[in-house]
Specification:
Layout lengths: L1 E9 L1 H17 L2 E12 L1 H17 L2 E5 L3 H9 L11
Parallel strand pairs: 1-2, 2-3
Pfam families: STAS_2
Organism: Catenuloplanes indicus
Protein name: Anti-anti-sigma factor
């Protein structure tokens, strides 16, 4: 298992930098845990990165677990009704 911790803003400005990092980590291990406790802001670009990571994991037969979602992440997911889609946000 590999763990990636995302922190700070996960917005359009940072999402492009984080996508390759997440996808590379996903290919290294069959299970990737992404900790979101320190994400202070997230927008649709950030949400797209999370969905992209989940979709890529499914495509290559890996698993991605999103953990410790910050209040900002939980709020954004709830607004767009994606909170059930990105399960395991405990």
């Amino acid at each position: 298992m590999s763990t990636v911790e995302l922190a700070g803003e996960l917005t359009i400005h940072a999402a492009a930098e984080q996508a390759p990092r997440l996808l590379a980590a996903l290919e290294e291990k069959s299970v990737l845990r992404v900790r979101l406790a320190d994400v202070t802001e997230i927008d649709t670009a950030g949400l797209q990165i999370l969905l992209l990571t989940r979709r890529e994991a499914a495509r290559i037969g890996s698993t991605v677990e999103f953990r410790d979602a910050s209040p900002a992440v939980r709020e954004a997911l709830a607004i767009v009704h994606l909170d059930p889609a990105l399960e395991a946000m405990s």
